[in-house]
Amino acid sequence: MKKIYMVLLFLSLTSLSFGQTAVKGVVKNVSGELLPGANVVLTGTGRGSTTDLQGRFDIRNIPAGKYTLWVSYLGYEIFTQEINVPQSVELQVVLSSKAIQTEEFIVFATRAGEKTPTTFSNVSKEDIAKLNLGQDMPILLNFTPSVVSFSDAGAGVGYTGLRIRGSDQTRINVTVNGIPMNDAESHGVFWVNMPDFASSVDNIQIQRGVGTSTNGAATFGASLNIQTDTRQDEAFAEVDNSFGSFNTRRHMVKVGTGLINNRWAFDGRLSQITSDGYIDRASSNLRSYFFSGGYYGEKHVVKMNVFAGAEVTYQAWEGVPENLLRTNRTFNPYTYDNQVDDYKQNHYQLIYTGELGEGLKANAALHYTYGRGFFEQFRANDRLNRYGLPNLEIGGSTISRMDIIRRRWLDNDFFGGVFSLNYMTEDARWDLTLGGGANRYIGDHFGEIIWMQFAGPVNIRDRYYDNVAIKDDINIYGKVTYQATEKLYLFGDLQGRWIDYSFEGINNDLRDVTGDVNFAFFNPKVGLTYQVSQGKQWYASYAVANREPVRRDFTDSPIIDRAPRHENLQNIEAGYRVQSGTFTYNANFYYMKYRDQLVLTGHLNDVGAYVRDNVDNSYRMGIELDGAYKLADKWTLGGNLALSRNKIEEFIEYLDDYSTADFRQEMIVHTNTDIAFSPNVVAAAIVDYRPFKGLELSLLNKYVGRQFLDNTQNEARSLNAFWTSDLRFNYSMRPRFVKNMEVTLLVNNIFNRLYEPNGYTFSYFVPAEAMGGRELVTENFFYPQAGTNFLAGVKFLF
């Protein structure tokens, strides 16, 4: 009987194996181009796949029967087809381009395309999702070309930043759906105010160099062009939870209605992220939401986005002194329990995009951002005259110093509109775009004393300084791409930008900063693209950008007597792009020539604050290589390399001299020195291994060369080169109770490297008899990043 049972069992398993088979195929567009990353689902089975670099999919273990094959890809109509399993032939799926309702035109005007002669990289939603476990956007973009990212708290949550080609966040233009995100005054983007924003991002384009004309702050090193989530045709729900080192937690819930009555769609997200941070007390408590709803007609789309972030972050701004790096890398000088940054920001976007006629498309958006918050500081033994307060007389003693707790506030409004019109001729030889925007910023800066060691003549809501800034920014641009021959495309881009910036009131150093400045900029760009063959292109371009100084350049310098000059950049880009079935790569050369670049020199203003000075000539020059190659069915190798030379031809360094009775500053002339925070080598290498369906193992490596903390090219004031390696595990499965389940484990810095990607320095002379009367003292401060640490998450898609 046992033998009979074994035979029957064997026969049943054999029958079952013959009854289950695979569904294979390839996905292309109507032009025959392969479409990697397309989503393929067999409805009713809970099984699906994603096409590989060759556009192929393979769904295994499907019981025999009749099914509906469902294929989707950004920018294309959804494909459905009834199929019978088993299949005798490989399926050939051809996707048709979608109409305007795909929302692609929302970012079209500010995007570079395959025929645009500039240097850019595209980051897809899938690329972001693989690393998105709650860390901020700069950390998620760390492995893209020429990027150096860093975190104040050392673990990627809280205050983070990035540099591209050595240019910091204040020189990187950021737009979301074509709407400016840079702070109008500082030009920075504070990603901590947008926690978990990556979970609502559909794709990002990074343009390096001047790039194409865009809205908002000047593109003076790079731009990040972000498009938020686009319409989902099917209803969905997503739950994403992750945890990791330093008590890091992330909880995210996301839902969407899908397309209702073929016209309406709504979706939303709620997120919370908390972390203790690697640095002592560098905790973060971050909350955010994103809601979107829209009407999707045949030729018109109207969409409303509402998103907000709230953060409370314990300050880790001071960094770690160099002498403590070896003994106490997590040192934080702040111990007051509420030494925090507390800020909230709400964004409202009303967007229209549509087709107005044959070949004519339009996009327009109104936006409003409301921000408010403060940072609180305990000030030990602070001077009363810094707050405009008289000395106190208590018990016959005169008190000029005492412990104080203060708050510095920023309450701001930013609103305006952007638009673009695009016309393409019927033969596609002419592609014309007219766009622009008008925006106003109103910023109220004020400070309060909320506690004093001894009662003084001040009430809790009294403001010891108060000033208002109003900034109007108007720009208009026109772009044209003309197909001169079968393979040659000519490109032109002209932008005008007008700025009015006014100040009124008293600054935090009790100086009257009342004044007004105006700028008018003309930013031309020209270039060409030569299509060697399908997927192979040469390109070259010349572009000009002009940039106004930031707020501190005006408030720290008398506007009338010593107003800083605006900066000018001339940018040459040339490169070669290749896209093939098994490999893609880009190689480009760039030259960025600056005139009147503003840099810190150690120069003091009349109240002892350090100001930035214009330097006549400086430049960045380099080559960038990036690509990916599919070594075999299971192995993919990708990476990038940037080699550069970044120089200031001449500038004057000012050093404080305390070695004499009368304080003075000594001037030292430096020539042909490296620009601060501009490593000559930045590289990344990523190895992906897929041993079986659903599992992906990735080794991510990053190398950053030496960075100087100032512009003197002094190795005693520098950040050491570093190499880090991360290990990532992604396992995706499709159990029957959910559409998809994904488990991710990210082990950062697996070799426990000790490294610091950011810092600052200052030097001064002090008396020293043995040194001929004085000694030069240099103090360096660093932002150490965590050693080996991990993040793990699980995501359910319903």
TrEMBL record:
<dbReference type="Pfam" id="PF00593">
    <property type="entry name" value="TonB_dep_Rec_b-barrel"/>
</dbReference>
<protein>
    <submittedName>
        <fullName>TonB-dependent receptor</fullName>
    </submittedName>
</protein>
<dbReference type="GO" id="GO:0015344">
    <property type="term" value="F:siderophore uptake transmembrane transporter activity"/>
</dbReference>
<dbReference type="Pfam" id="PF13715">
    <property type="entry name" value="CarbopepD_reg_2"/>
</dbReference>
<feature type="signal peptide">
    <location>
        <begin position="1"/>
        <end position="19"/>
    </location>
</feature>
<keyword id="KW-1134">Transmembrane beta strand</keyword>
<keyword id="KW-0472">Membrane</keyword>
<feature type="domain" description="TonB-dependent receptor plug">
    <location>
        <begin position="114"/>
        <end position="221"/>
    </location>
</feature>
<keyword id="KW-0406">Ion transport</keyword>
<keyword id="KW-0408">Iron</keyword>
<keyword id="KW-0410">Iron transport</keyword>
<comment type="similarity">
    <text>Belongs to the TonB-dependent receptor family.</text>
</comment>
<keyword id="KW-0812">Transmembrane</keyword>
<keyword id="KW-0998">Cell outer membrane</keyword>
<keyword id="KW-0675">Receptor</keyword>
<dbReference type="Pfam" id="PF07715">
    <property type="entry name" value="Plug"/>
</dbReference>
<dbReference type="InterPro" id="IPR037066">
    <property type="entry name" value="Plug_dom_sf"/>
</dbReference>
<dbReference type="GO" id="GO:0009279">
    <property type="term" value="C:cell outer membrane"/>
</dbReference>
<dbReference type="InterPro" id="IPR012910">
    <property type="entry name" value="Plug_dom"/>
</dbReference>
<dbReference type="InterPro" id="IPR008969">
    <property type="entry name" value="CarboxyPept-like_regulatory"/>
</dbReference>
<dbReference type="InterPro" id="IPR039426">
    <property type="entry name" value="TonB-dep_rcpt-like"/>
</dbReference>
<keyword id="KW-0813">Transport</keyword>
<dbReference type="InterPro" id="IPR000531">
    <property type="entry name" value="Beta-barrel_TonB"/>
</dbReference>
<feature type="domain" description="TonB-dependent receptor-like beta-barrel">
    <location>
        <begin position="327"/>
        <end position="750"/>
    </location>
</feature>
<dbReference type="InterPro" id="IPR036942">
    <property type="entry name" value="Beta-barrel_TonB_sf"/>
</dbReference>
<keyword id="KW-0798">TonB box</keyword>
<keyword id="KW-0732">Signal</keyword>
